[in-house]
Write a structure and sequence with these properties.
With 278 residues, the chain is of the alpha+beta class. It has helices at 2-24, 35-110, 152-161, 165-171, 256-260, 263-267, and strands at residues 115-122, 129-137, 145-151, 172-177, 188-194, 201-210, 213-224, 227-238, 243-250. Helix 1 packs antiparallel against helix 2 (35-110) and helix 3 runs antiparallel to helix 4.
């Protein structure tokens, strides 16, 4: 504020000097003795004008310097903002990576979206000998696996006589595998069994539980030209609330009308399909 007041005072002083000089330079004889004073005032006026010019130059220079400092400050602020934005992006990526790592660790313990199912195959060069296996899909191991295989044909027979704990054992087989195991690509034998020549179909409902959820399998077998073919469907109910069909496999020659008359099979037919990471 002080430099501005000085500049204003100098402008006023120059104005007064100009008025004084004009008066002293008038042609009146009474002013002739003051010609020397007029000269001095002119000199002072010139000095004031030069000083004002210098002050204007300094003001412009200071203004340019302030503008450059302001632009530099704005550039620094923009750079800091860009850095903060980049840091925030890196933080988001780090959080996402940590979340993914945590999910991976949890999936490794619980099993993720892996699942198991039972498959029954006819042994080579035989007509009546079959073998039950447990297989799996998914990239994570499964723990605390419990499998209950219910023979629906036997179950229907004993139901007519009255179900009890003793005869229920005839209709089901139970297996338990507590240790973590990668079942994907594994063909783990469960039990062999034979079927008489006059038997041409078998129905199984299989109930499987693990740390990551429950799985229900409908397995249907049919004898066609001395060979056993199958139809299977596995429905998952994961603990993270996802439910749906994770596997369906029907051999080409399996009679479709048999499946359409199967209440258990048709009950899950409209369930949505789930995609499993393998």
């Amino acid at each position: 504020m002080i430099p501005i007041a000085i500049d204003v005072s100098l402008v006023i002083l120059v104005g007064l000097l100009t008025i004084g000089i004009s008066f002293l330079d008038s042609p009146s004889k009474a002013n002739s003795p003051f010609r020397f004073v007029s000269l001095i005032l002119r000199c002072v006026s010139i000095i004031c004008i030069m000083f004002i010019g210098i002050r204007n130059y300094q003001t412009q220079t200071e203004s340019m310097q302030s503008k450059e400092k302001l632009e530099t400050s704005l550039a620094d602020i923009a750079s800091v903002q860009d850095l903060n934005t980049e840091l925030q992006k890196q933080l988001v990526k780090s959080n996402a990576a940590l979340a993914e790592l945590a999910k991976t660790n949890i999936d490794e313990v619980t099993g993720g979206d892996s699942f198991c199912y039972v498959e029954i195959r006819q042994m080579a060069l035989t007509t009546g000998l079959l073998q039950a296996f447990v297989l799996g899909k998914g990239k994570n191991p499964l723990s605390d696996l419990r499998i209950r295989i219910v023979d629906l044909d036997v179950f229907d027979k004993i139901s007519q006589a009255g179900l009890n704990e003793e005869n229920m054992r005839e209709a089901q087989r139970i297996y338990s595998f507590p240790l973590p195991t990668h079942y994907s690509g594994l063909l783990k034998p469960l039990y062999p069994f034979t079927l008489p020549p006059e038997e041409f179909s078998k129905r199984y409902n299989i109930f499987i539980s693990a740390r990551n959820g429950f799985f229900t399998e409908n397995l249907r077998l049919r004898r066609v030209d001395k060979s056993w073919i199958s139809a299977m469907r596995v429905t998952a109910s994961y603990y993270d609330k996802r439910t749906g069909i994770v596997l369906e496999r029907i051999d080409r020659d399996f009679p479709q009308d048999i499946l359409q008359m199967d209440k258990d099979w048709m009950a899950s037919a409209k369930s949505k399909r789930l995609k499993i990471q393998e």
